[in-house]
Write a structure and sequence with these properties.
With about 375 residues, the protein is of the alpha+beta class. It has helices spanning about 15-25, 45, 60-80, 95-110, 120-130, 150-165, 205-215, 280-290, 340-355, and strands spanning about 5-10, 30-35, 50, 90-95, 120, 140, 145, 165-170, 175-180, 185-190, 195-200, 215, 220-225, 225-230, 240-245, 250, 255-265, 265-270, 275, 300-305, 310, 315-320, 325-330, 370. Strands 1, 2, 8, 9, 10, 11, 22 and 23 form an 8-stranded mixed beta sheet that branches. Bound molecules: flavin-adenine dinucleotide.
Length: about 375
Amino acid sequence: MTGRLSLDVAIIGGGTAGCAAALHLARRGLSVALFERRTVGSQASGVNFGGVREQGRDFAELPLSRRSRRIWDELPALIGSDGEFMATGHLKLARDEDQMAVLEAFATGAADYGLAVERITGNRLRADYPWLGPKVIGATLCRSDGQANPRIVAPGFGQAARRAGAQVFEHEAVRHATRDAGGFRIETEAGRQVTAATLINVAGAWGATVAGWFGDAVPIAPRSPSMQVTEPLPYRVKVNVGVVGGDVYARQTPRGNVIFGGGQGWNDMATITSRAGETEVMAAMRRLTGILPWAGGAHVIRTWSGIEGFTPDDLPVLGSSVTTPGLLHAFGFSGHGFQLGPAVGEVLAELVLTGRSETPLAPFSIERFGGVLAASA
Ligand SMILES: Cc1cc2nc3c(=O)[nH]c(=O)nc-3n(C[C@H](O)[C@H](O)[C@H](O)COP(=O)(O)OP(=O)(O)OC[C@H]3O[C@@H](n4cnc5c(N)ncnc54)[C@H](O)[C@@H]3O)c2cc1C
């Protein structure tokens, strides 16, 4: 396939962030094309745990996360699907007093952002959540948090973007991109030559590679959270559950399967392969039965992982390039970008259209890493 395209905006990456950006830009009448190496939502956006939570985030992320949470409620109107989002609440558990202090501190600080987080201890903990194991000594509940089906969210945004007029090219990797006085020149593996006034880099774990084409240096580590799902068990856990420190997290589908994660698996960036870690699978099962003892002995029917870019401070890069006018980055979501994706798309569209965002982005500036590479040819 060959061809030439001249666009207002080109987008590299078809995860939730890229598809949401394409949707908003196309709705505003811009000519937009998105290039995805595999299929829309086939990487982190489609294989994650499905947690949609504000609780436990770095406070710097809360304004963006709060904005995204509002959009999760509006998904049916925005993309024609609710993504199976359910506001089940997120219950974060403490297994000792130090962890309880962490939960208390978050609950207090979150109030400044208008996020309600309830402390739950003692008899109420046992009465409301009788399925918790005795190692759990307390918890905090954020009722507005929840869970969704990652398999359908990014494709939902992708389909909505297409309906709004964006061109979404799947199985078409971007080989390289440069910028000159005429704008961005983008070449795909299929041989397509594209020019665009603006380029958006939402390439997930490969975001630093794309940034590097323009001399923007970001220290990204590709990691692969280890995920598992059990056979159906009696439906008990209606909230999304995590622990302080994140060494295990779980949710149960109404059909009864317990989806849980914890620890890191492995990946091979060259072949784009990821797997749950052999030892992590057993370790996460042990930690799961520490908080949900009745799940002990359940058959695990599938394990999997994905590839996600982690930054040194676990905050994303979201905003303009240091080196290249018209280049926007949004990547490095460090294991918690599924909840943020809908707002990231809106923010990117705002930046393209107005050069600024109503959401504070300073903590996500690429400049915090301070590095500029020698631009590649
Ligand atoms: C196993 C796992 C569990 C997680 N659990 C949660 C959770 O419960 N809650 C939460 O909020 N977050 C979670 N996350 C994190 C979340 O999934 C990601 O932060 C988020 O999906 C990132 O979205 P994205 O659109 O930025 O990136 P991706 O979904 O990774 O999309 C980037 C896309 O860019 C494409 N691409 C890369 N290079 C090129 C190129 N040169 N040309 C064309 N296309 C290219 C890739 O193929 C990919 O599809 C988890 C992640 C993983 C891996």
